Amino acid sequence: MIQTRSPARKTAAVVVRPFERRDVGAVLVLMRALAVFEGYADKFRVTEADVVEDGLGPSPRFGVFVAEVDGAIVGIAVHYLIPWTYDFRPVVVLKELYVAEAARGMSVGYALVQRLRDHAIGIGASAIKWTVLQSNMPAKAFYRSLDGQADEIWELWQMTIDR
To answer: What pTM did the predictor assign?
Structure first.
């Protein structure tokens, strides 16, 4: 658990911890909010059962760090692991980072990324990777402030599979 004093609200502490069953509803609310923000809400299909089964089940496919301020969950960092790549070390993929609008400017995003970084170091990962909407300039500025950088070698590609 990481506690970070917020420069914006001296009385509020940001507490970051791995999510638990009791957090699933709040995590899902923030996941949906991100889907709205990024423009894919109409395609969002994640359910509470999915989060429980695939995030908290016997073989989790992803993890979530939650950030709390005054006991309320205000941010999430959803992540998963690529077990190894060319250097035979894991890579942590930050799939979703979202902070509720009311909690922005309180160091919540910083605390979440710092906790993810500590996790990556703890498992011997060689990197943390993520994607950013091309138009999301505030996110790019935030990631640069954490020494993140755009990959100059690889570009994101995809193949859509219709069901």
So the answer is: 0.89
